[in-house]
Each structure stands twice: as structure tokens, then as C-alpha cells.
TrEMBL record:
Ferrous iron transporter FeoA-like domain sequence ranges: 1-69
SUPFAM superfamilies per UniProt: C-terminal domain of transcriptional repressors
PANTHER family, per database record: FEOA FAMILY PROTEIN, SSR2333 PROTEIN
Entry keyword annotation includes Protease: no
Protein name, entry field: Ferrous iron transport protein A
One GO molecular-function entry: transition metal ion binding
Keyword set includes Iron: yes
Database matches in SMART domains: FeoA (SM00899)
Keywords: Iron
Length: 69
């Protein structure tokens, strides 16, 4: 399921990242790699603030939908 489906505060592991190569590369540079634990901190209008590798990162809804957990 995509990252946007997670509840706030619920940790889960990243299973896959879908999309074109540049989007995958961008997300990997931010720390979104397969097997990493990710937690949704907040949601506002579909956009997410997530915690990954001890960093808080804001993601648009379209980018968050590319991350499968």
C-alpha cells in the first residue's frame, strides 16, 4: 500500500519505490530506501511530513504515493 495510507504515528518498512528513475533517485537521496523504517508525523491536505533515518521530510501527495510500505 502507498505511504499515504499509513496512520499518523504508525511505523512501517519501505517495500518498494515506484516511478521513473529520476523520482526514485531523488527519494533514495532523501533516505527512502527499501527496508528503511518510515513513520508519518503529520498530514495536511494529503501532503505528508514523515520521519525517516532520524530526519523529518515533507512530501507531496504524489511523491508519497510512489513509496510502497
Amino acid at each position: 500500500m502507498p505511504l499515504t495510507m499509513l496512520r499518523i504515528g504508525e511505523p512501517n518498512n519501505i517495500k518498494n519505490i515506484v516511478g521513473n528513475d529520476s523520482a526514485k533517485c531523488h527519494l533514495e537521496h532523501l533516505g527512502f530506501v527499501t527496508g528503511e523504517t518510515v513513520t508519518v508525523v503529520a498530514e495536511l491536505a494529503g501532503n505528508l511530513i514523515v520521519n525517516v533515518k532520524d530526519a523529518r521530510i515533507a512530501l507531496s501527495k504524489s511523491m508519497a504515493n510512489r513509496i510502497m510500505v
